[in-house]
């Protein structure tokens, strides 16, 4: 019988060095797959797909069926938390997300309490329960949420921004409001991830996609500290559930991040040199990453060489193979297979 701790991903997250690392891919259920595009068309739009538990289960399983990844990540989005707190959310095709903005105390006062989020998010917990029963026995189920800073950048600007300018401006002009917003998102994230775990998520990942724009003390206050709080609260309730932190583009701030926050694994973006990270980050425990997503578009020998280099660089410690960011819609599904074959044959 296979017990939970025999799953490859859980073993890596517990610090085990493996001959072949477990593999999964950010955005592995996505538009580069024809079967995803078909299910997405059936659902109508992206948010309808997120809230339709049966179809969200189906798209989560598609890359597992096709590739046999070691982990499945719940199909949802980091912006469901703002919506569950009462913000308007919609997606503009070809452009990305739009939300009602939060720049004044009056905007903030319109948000609902954390205790109300589950009413909106119940279908997501149902997806987790479905997946828990449907996944192959060796496949680990990952739940996730956005980190408070990254979620706040979208709530403040009402959209994605190249430099997170509006969020930095609110932080400078009304620190009390900015910090109150971060605190609300932190509390909602703890409640949301706890419910995902209770529904069957075996690992959770915190996505801080814009952590790299927090400079100096701001990084400690608004990226590291919320991640530490969320991890501590989850560990108090669910001590055996590993947490993956992803402070994207944290550069030298990746050093010591796992120790300072209590996460079990740090996910590295592809701007990080793997040999450097093996010496300075992996010394604290498991790391995840970090092949450039562009290889999934271009393929070829470069893909093979970079994949081998990453597997070898991290081969002496605990490692989860992944991309450095999400796979893009223009990726070729055959290149994903080439990456997997390369990882599994390297050593
Ligand atoms: O990794 C996975 O497969 C799990 C599901 C997942 C999605 N989004 C599905 C999605 C996860 C973990 C996310 C995280 C997410 N969402 C982040 C953090 C990670 C990152 O990529 O930096 C952010 C910033 C978002 C917000 C978001 N959602 C944006 C900016 C967009 C539009 C950009 C785009 O690619 O079109 C989305 C939409 C989205 N989320 C899609 C998917 C599969 C594409 C939706 C579609 O049109 O079908």
UniProtKB/TrEMBL annotation:
Homodimer. PANTHER family: METHYLTETRAHYDROFOLATE:HOMOCYSTEINE METHYLTRANSFERASE RELATED, UROPORPHYRINOGEN DECARBOXYLASE. Residues 22-31, 142-158 form the Uroporphyrinogen decarboxylase (URO-D) domain. It catalyses: uroporphyrinogen III + 4 H(+) = coproporphyrinogen III + 4 CO2. Belongs to the uroporphyrinogen decarboxylase family. Pathway: Porphyrin-containing compound metabolism; protoporphyrin-IX biosynthesis; coproporphyrinogen-III from 5-aminolevulinate: step 4/4. This is Uroporphyrinogen decarboxylase. It is found in: Cytoplasm.
